[in-house]
Amino acid sequence: MSKRNTCVTLILTAAWLGLSGAAVADIEGVLKACDDCHSGEGDVPAIAGLSEFYHSDQLYFYRDEERPCIDTPDASGETTTMCAATADLGDDQIDEIAAHYAAMPFVAAKQDFDATLAAAGNQIHDRGCVMCHTDGGGNAGDDAGILAGQSMGYLKLTFDQYRAGEREQPGPMKGLLDALSDDDVKALVHYYASQQ
Fold first, then answer.
1. Dist CA 145 CA 67 (whole Å)
2. Domain containing 130: what range?
């Protein structure tokens, strides 16, 4: 979507929600900040294309400090956290952000991966992960996030947080993750990174 189309969409949405011109500018600023960080590189996930339900849930979790709030450099090189970035967002703003990114296509990170590890990861995925993460972890309609094509840094960080009990997870997922070895996790990271 072009910058002009994005602005028009925001203005129309704001009018529909009854927001003032200042609120439109605020949303535009928030979206710019999101775009600046979420290129899908390093430990920061790509967020375009996530389902609206999943994305808004994650923003609520950050705002309520129910997800780990690790320090991450923003586009200017300053350190921030997602908890700080979402602290002042209202429910309507969170829902607007989620709807905005749900309407955009997901763009997989271009990265090197080990084909042998990816093949092993595919087998692990098919044994347990496929129940919630269909299409190789790339179906946004699962409302379980998008794993396929995320950066390896983000995937590794996410697996580490889940395995350390730092992130809430559905019951079946905990049992599956607890059964994985470090080598299994590495294979899964390479598998999801291989999905373009």
1. 15
2. 115-194
State how far the Cα of 18 lies from the Cα of 21, in Å rounded to an integer: 10
* Phi, psi (rounded to 5 degrees) for 71: -70, 130
pTM: 0.81
Same domain, 88 and 40: yes
What are the contacts of 67-74 at 24+ separation with CB within 8 A?
67/167, 68/161, 68/166, 68/167, 70/157, 72/37, 72/43, 72/44, 74/33, 74/36, 74/37
Q: Which region holds residue 108: left if phi is over 0, alpha if psi is between -120 and 50, else beta?
A: beta
- Beta partners for 73? 79
Coil, strand or helix: which one is 36? helix
Confirm if 150 and 45 have CB atoms less than 8 A apart.
yes
Domain match, 97 and 32 both:
yes
What is the mean pLDDT of each successive set of 10 residues along the chain, which is 196 residues long?
A: 37 38 64 85 88 96 90 73 91 95 95 97 96 95 95 94 86 88 97 94
User: Number of H helices and number of E strands within the chain?
Assistant: 9, 2
Number of neighbours of residue 95 by Cβ within 10 angstroms: 17
